[in-house]
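Checked the freezer inventory, then went back to the computational side. Two predictions to log before the end of the day. The first one is the construct we discussed on Monday; recording sequence and tokens without edits.
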Amino acid sequence: MAIDLTKLTATAPGLVDLYKTARVSLDKHRLGGERAAVYLVIDHSRSMSRYFKDGSVQALALCPLQKLDLSHTAVRDIEALRGMELRELDLSHTHVTDLSALSGMPLERLTLNDSPVHDLRGLAGAKLKSLSLAGTAIKDLDALAGMPLTELDLRGCELLTDVQALAHCPNLEHVYLPRQIKVPANHWQLSRLKFIEYERHNETSLARK
């Protein structure tokens, strides 16, 4: 198993017995040397409330997680995530507004749908490939210039009026635009851009390059 038993004993002794049981089961099925993706989903149920209050959720920053789903939770502050090696993070339907804790994180996919985020400066310099901002209150995309984005979702971003920053995202292939912005598919002259989808009367129209 990839997790060191000595380290686990020192940081989470309550998990040692479970670790040993899992190890026996894996070895029995000849899977002891295999690696697997581990997903952790934290919900906003009453039974989880005390873990948000006592800092248990924040302690996840010590875990070698790569994917974390905090969507539909009461999370407001993600400072505890600073320094984590996350590749994918979902903060949709949370109360998070400050993204500065994500600075320097090797994120490739970030979902912020229907969150109160309105400032993307905390993402400046990020290496995101997929970013979903649907239903947020963002007003400009300047922080996205130069990112290796391939997919961007801006549906429902009613305060957004300018998307010129996307001209500096050379890897962009697929863009969802809010209904108030109408641009031809060849507007940015991006070689990899395949098509743009935009809202119109609660529907989605497709403009191919």
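The second is the one RB wanted added to the comparison set:
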Amino acid sequence: MEALFTELNKMRQTEDYDKAIKVCNKILNLTPNDLLAFHCKIVSMVHCGKFDDALKQMEMDKFQLDLTFERAYCYYRMNNPLKALEIVDSVKMPKVKHQELRAQILYRLEKYDECFSVYRTMLKSTTDDYELERMTNLSAVTANMEDKTNMSVDKQDTYELRYNAGCNYAAAEDYEEAEVALKAAEETAKAFLAEEGSTEEEIEEETGIIRVQLGYTLQKLGRDKEAQAIYNQVLRNKPSDIGLVAVASNNLLTLNKDQNIFDSKKRIKAATVEGLEHKLTGKQRRGIARNNALLAMYTAQVDLCQQLLDEMDPSTIPDKKLIMAAALARAGKHQEAVDGLLSSGSSDPILQMTAANIYLAAGEVAAGAEMLGKLPEDWRFRTGVLSTLVTLQLALENREAAAQVLKSAVVWSKKKGSKSVQGDSDMATVFRKTAEFHLNSGEPGVAAQSLEELLQIETDNMTTLAQLVLAYAKFDLDKALAASKRLPLFEHGSVDVDALEKSGAMGAKHKNKQTPKPGAIPSPKTDHDGDVIKKKKKKRKLRLPKGTTFNPNADPDPERWLPRHERTGLRYNMPGGYRKPRKDKRKAEKFTGAQGVDSGKAETYDYSAKVAADKAAAANKMEATPPAPEPKVGPRKQSGKPQNKSKKKGGKNKF
């Protein structure tokens, strides 16, 4: 027995738990009632990952040992945290190990507030060698709580603490500090692992999670290209952690948005593999599921999008109607999308504005304007919505409706006053644009009302006062005169004459003559009144064709623009008709040579004269020489192949 226990102790030191189980079995075969051997066997089975066998052994326990910690740990490792928490909470006098396990179970159940309390209590009441590990776990809890006020930043010696601090800053949306902390964590991790003798591949594997978190931080800072490069580099190393692969793939998916759909489908496949429910938090899983539904929306897969949305908890996806409406609209089913948004008589302004946007995207301007007109007043009379509604009515050539909308906006703004949702600047914009619209429409009285309201907001604005005077002048001169007295007196020194001349407000411009710069375009000459002097064109002398005379008293030929063959003075059109002469009676056409030949050399190339000379010479020759005798009739040509009697030397032809 002593030798067996000595061997069991060696197995514990070398962490060879498979052999330790065999040694424990030998001991139990010799002494079946040995409590220590049985306990060592259970612990060895837990270390080997044989949780089912360990639970079966504990159920058959006859020794009445307190194995609540081991039983709870087995359930925790078998992904049954509720059962594990039930067992731990049943312990009346929990020890430190029970508190440690309880904190881990609460973290798995995402009960971060309770987990934080357990770790805080343990750090205050316990002093041992595991204080640094508890600090690391506590920083991980605060990171998930998205609260950096409880984060301890004075003890960031290890790369785990630096990493959790970076996650905590990122969760609190302090991305600049998160970037600094994560870069420091990566450098610390590489230095520490290099001192431990880890290989390059092991260092890349260990620091992959830090770099993915750094990529997320850079993505939130708007540096998408840097983040994309980090994600791709981590995925090229093929990490073994499926949770890390899922997070990196999901973040790449968000960078693609509605572009590069093929790559997005590949990424979402890697982010939705089995087993992620135990690797990722609930928030991460919900984000991936939402992105999967958005990808189906972008690809107009209506049925798949509906299925994915139904699988999600409605409380975690409040914009379910918006996503489904977008999928239907992309599929061309605009009316179904609007019906889905406004189902059950929903009066949500966001849904109504989305419905109007769908109508406008489909080209149904009238329906979109009608939908915007149904918005509540505090939404309809906001600056952006109001300008859109007026623009749509003008596009429909319904100027009266646009004027009515602006009048309603002015009335509503008067009622609300400073209590309105809009600020003073937005209200001033509404009044000013309304006044301009009514002035252009020939309604100075309505425009004056808007300008009066505008003066109450901008009391010292002389531009508004001047516009009001102009509006009064069109329908009430007394009011215009009274309002004009509030304008400042004109002083010559207060007016920039040069600026007025440049703006053209004084009519003609008076400029001093200046020497033009070399290469500059010369300015046109002006007279004393400032009018541009036009250059006088010289009269060109009338040139007539040679050999023609011009009689200014004679009327021009009325048929001068008709073609020659249509004129009445031509012989072809004379009374009685005209018959062309025979071909042989016509005058011979004069040969002028080929195109491009000089007219002086036409005789050289006139072959008709040469042909005539040759014929005359041949006739003279026939008269001088006697006729040739007729040839004798020869023998009849024999039929058949000709016989070649002569033979050539060499036989066959040679080539």
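For RB: Residues 418-422, 633-642, 645-655 have pLDDT under 50 and may be disordered. The two ends are 112 Å apart (CA to CA). Let me know if you want it refolded.
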